[in-house]
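Why does residue order matter? Because the sequence determines the fold. Keep that principle in mind as you read this record.
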Amino acid sequence: MLKEHLDEVNAILDKLIALTEEDLENIKIAKHESVAPNVEKKNKLITEFVNAKKKLDLSLVQLNNSSTKGLSEMLDEEDKNKLDILKKNLQTLYTKNKEYAKLVLIVKDFLDGLIDKMFDIHSNGTDNAYRNKKDIPESIFKINV
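Structure:
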């Protein structure tokens, strides 16, 4: 049972990593329309991961409580390898998410600067070709992160 839970958790992490890598590439080539649907997919995968991780934790606790031996003595090599893969996948996802957050921040800063320039929010009123007193820049653009 432990092996199945490890496989499930690792499979979910593989999907999350793949989607994040896809988003990174899409952001780099300014193909932003595909990022929002992936956010929804990732949110579902995160929910699946949380549930699968709970099952894995329960299996590990049950295994640990079933004997006086240490958990490391009770796991076979395959289980240990799958736990190593889990650790590696978590580290990879962390690194990819960090890179993703940096790119999102760069794009956000660019768009904020563009809005400032277009609507002359922080200057003396000479470059406000798009400015309409009724326009509120926040109502024009919405950023999903």
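The CA atoms of residues 20 and 96 lie 7 Å apart.
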